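Consortium newsletter contribution from the modelling node. Members have asked for a concrete example of what our holo predictions look like. Here is one, prepared for the magnesium ion complex that several groups have been discussing at recent meetings.
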Amino acid sequence: MSALLEARGLSKRFGGVVAADAVSFSLAPGEMLAMIGPNGAGKSTTFAMVGGQLAPDSGRVLLDGADVTGLSPAALFRRGIGRTFQVAQTFATMTVCENVQMALLSAAGEVFGLWRTARARHREAALEALARVGMAQAADRPTATLAYGDVKRVELAIALAARPRVLLMDEPTAGMAAQERAELMALVRTIARERAIGVLFTEHDMGAVFAHADRILVLVRGEIVAAGAPEAVREDARVRAAYLGE
Ligand code: ADP
Ligand code: MG
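And here is the predicted structure:
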């Protein structure tokens, strides 16, 4: 059986910097896979190669065993590779529900001019996604009035509304307080399991990583130096030396 998502030997160089050096991993349905490593390790570069924002110099990305290397972000999105978008990309003057509907509209490739007719169709799906992240009661409020942690939940709803099979989350909890961070990661994990979504995420908070990841990849200078279950990675001497500062 092939993995949901597989990266095979992804490499990317920027001038003299090898940002990613033959990065390989696989992601199973419902799995929470964390990618950790110091700043500049190549995490965002790897995400961008999987999400289609960057073409790899070499290596392949497979989705359900099919080669999707080099497809555009929009094409990958239509095939089920979603990602969370940052707060700046939501429209503050629109309501929470409209933001989710807007995301569905663009995911469906519908033109903006059809907004008035098309959005009615997407309201139900948007409300369902908002309800799943505990934000149904805020559906008709302007997004600008939300607390920061709630904006993060809306970002998750936007990603979920498109029914992704793979979710890429590059620092989804940036700027959140520890308690909110733990709650959001627990919610993502629950939803990933119930919908069989494979989640690849980065996270600075090692407590959240070790609590919510099924497996951890450790990237140092573009290379995966360790991979495995949290307990195994925590005990890995190379990880302690290279990353955990022990
Ligand atoms: P991380 O997300 O783990 O902090 P990045 O993937 O952002 O790491 O960066 C990996 C390396 O690649 C760093 O040395 C960074 O400076 C470099 N890099 C990333 N993106 C670019 C770019 N667009 N142009 C030049 N260098 C880049
Ligand atoms: Mg990064």
